[in-house]
Design a protein that fits this description.
20 strands; alpha+beta
Length: 377
């Protein structure tokens, strides 16, 4: 059965084109994909992310339990900060990529991708077995998530926080940090995080309060150029920013190191006795960290007008298949196609000329550094 966001009626009222995504009916676009993308790059966009999963872990052993269950060192996270991390299988394959917030000394919030909420919940439940000092609670049903992204996001969100002290705290938030604030009369966890490559905020609120907050953000942001934005713009924005998407760049056959994200794997984690901490996947990931990679994730700049797409073959100029495109699309910001692909190491150097097989025709591409787009600071 397809699930509906708490904001479903808002999307219908705005005339959104809806699509099935990970079992949810979500807005693909409200009008023009390019206009929504451009608004986020130049002003602000409003996204419904209520399909994401929110899992709370609490108790005196919560930090240690996460250290053993995930690849990151979460017990070292300061209260009010967040960290990008992953949960891996024993063989090192990625089950999901996550953002973890430390809400209090003994309370964490794990945010999972919509398609993997049950996978993450079940894996954590299994990895917490026999630990009464760490309690897992799935808060996904009760929680809505709204994102305001773009260079004017701070102006929009801070303008909806009436308390001067709270408004100042939101304004001063560092990237990957969060604070509680009352936003337009609604209690929210306000996080300076996002998936677009722009400045922005993600607001976790009770599901019942989401429609009122959505309408308030739209009303406050419209004079500044804010528009509602759907999954299509979200995908093109994250691609320009070189951010991985689970199911494309990441999956159970991929390790963090394959995706160029070995930095999130903390092999220096130790237990109370100073011994290496035996987190799930450690042995496989340690071996992978020191091995010659079989494939490397690279950026590809399209040199023609036809865009590469997920699953297309990457070939040498002689026509030998050397990889596969994971994500690809025209870049509204840069004006040419971009793609990410796994290729063999010998063709992974920046500046290497390759091609992508686009429906039987080889379209020229060049290996370039990721990300394709980096916002001005």
């Amino acid at each position: 059965m397809t699930r509906l966001s708490p904001l479903h009626d808002e999307h219908v009222a705005l005339g959104a084109a809806l699509t099935d995504f990970a079992g949810w009916q979500m807005p693909l676009r409200y009008g023009s994909d390019v206009a929504e993308h451009t608004a986020v790059r130049t002003a602000a966009g409003l996204f419904d992310l209520s399909h994401m999963g929110e899992l709370e872990l609490s108790g005196p052993g919560a930090g240690d339990a996460l250290d053993r269950a995930l690849v990151g060192n979460l017990s070292a996270l300061a209260v009010g900060r967040a960290r990008y991390t992953m949960i891996c299988a024993p063989d090192g394959g990625v089950l999901d990529d996550l953002v973890v917030y430390r809400l209090e000394d003994e309370r964490y919030l794990v945010v999972a991708n919509a398609s993997n909420v049950a996978v993450v919940r079940d894996a954590l439940t299994e990895r917490l077995a026999g630990r009464p000092d760490a309690v897992l609670e799935d808060r996904s049903e009760q929680t809505a998530l709204i994102a305001v992204q773009g260079p004017l996001a701070e102006q929009v969100v801070v303008g909806l926080v009436p308390d001067a002290t709270e408004a100042g705290a939101v304004r001063e938030l560092r990237y990957y940090a969060a604070v509680r604030a009352t936003v337009q009369g609604i209690d929210a966890l306000v996080a300076r995080t996002g998936y677009t490559g722009e400045d922005g905020f993600e607001l976790f609120v009770p599901a019942d309060d989401a429609p009122a907050l959505w309408r308030a953000v739209l009303a406050a942001g419209a004079p500044l150029g804010l528009v509602p934005a759907g999954l299509s713009a979200r995908d093109s924005l994250r691609l320009e920013a070189g951010m991985p998407l689970y199911g494309n760049e990441l999956d159970r056959t991929t390790t963090p190191h394959d995706a160029g994200l070995g930095r999130v794997v903390r092999l220096d984690k130790v237990d109370r006795d100073g011994m290496p901490l035996p987190f799930v996947g450690r042995d496989a990931l340690e071996a992978r960290a020191h091995a010659t990679p079989a494939r490397t994730l690279v950026g590809l700049q399209g040199l023609t007008r036809r865009a590469a797409r997920h699953g297309y073959d990457v070939v040498t100029t002689a026509g030998t298949v050397v990889g596969t495109v994971t994500s690809g699309a025209p870049s509204p910001t840069l004006g040419h196609p971009v793609a990410m692909a796994y290729v063999t190491p010998e063709v992974a150097a920046d500046g290497t000329d390759l091609a992508v097989d686009v429906r039987g025709r080889h379209e020229a591409v060049r290996v370039v550094p990721l990300p394709f787009y980096r916002r001005a600071r």
